[in-house]
Amino acid sequence: MYYLQQYFDETAPVYEATATIEAKLQLCRELFSDELRAGLAILGVDGFLSYKDVNKLDALVLFPIIHLLELFYTEDPSNAQLAANDMIEVLVGLDTDDDTFPEYEVYAVRKAPRLKTNPSPEE
Questions:
Q1: Which residues, in sequence order, are CB contacts of 88 under 8 Å at separation 6+?
Q2: What digits encode the pLDDT tens for the residues 30-60?
Q3: Which uninterrupted H or E stretch holds 96?
Q4: At what angle do helices 63-75 and 103-110 cross, to 10 degrees?
Q5: How many angstroms separate the CA atoms of 2 and 78, rounded?
Q6: Are 96 and 51 in contact (CB under 8 A)?
Q7: Three-class DSSP category at 49
Q8: What's the DSSP call for residue 15?
Q9: Considering Cα of 58, then 59, then 61, then 63, what sign does the dihedral take?
Q10: Cα–Cα dist 54/71, whole Å
Q11: Residue (of 104, 94, 91) closest to 35 by Cα position
């Protein structure tokens, strides 16, 4: 999940752990597939995803994006569905030597509106 970090001068109030901070978040369809591609680039994935990197992709890149996708579904379901389809297209376009990639990841993206914890394909 994305967290806001407080930068303040000595005169600014200090936020406590239970404080609520309102922030305007601009979400658009292209953001999700762009963030996925950027995360793949950071992991050094250029068209091929090793089985050794699948867990890193899920934990560090995909699930945080899916949590943002959940927010997008509440605001704009039709564009969120298009964004999910774009993400799935990126995932399916990767070559891999992993036996279960990208089935689990595609499942997670498709279930984003109902995703509350890590998804399970057995549901």
A1: 102, 106, 109, 110
A2: 999 999 999 999 999 999 999 999 999 999 9
A3: strand 95-96
A4: 30
A5: 24
A6: yes
A7: strand
A8: P
A9: positive
A10: 24
A11: 91
CA angle 86, 95, 31 (to 5 degrees): 25
pTM of the model: 0.74
Average pLDDT over residues 67-92: 93
Residue 34 has phi, psi (to 5 degrees) of: -65, -40
Rounded to an integer, what distance in angstroms lies between the CA atom of residue 54 and that of residue 96? 9
Measured distance CA(29)–CA(34) in Å, rounded: 9
Rounded CA separation 93/71 (Å): 25
The token pair that represents 115 in the structure block? 């995703």
Beta bridge partners of 96: 49
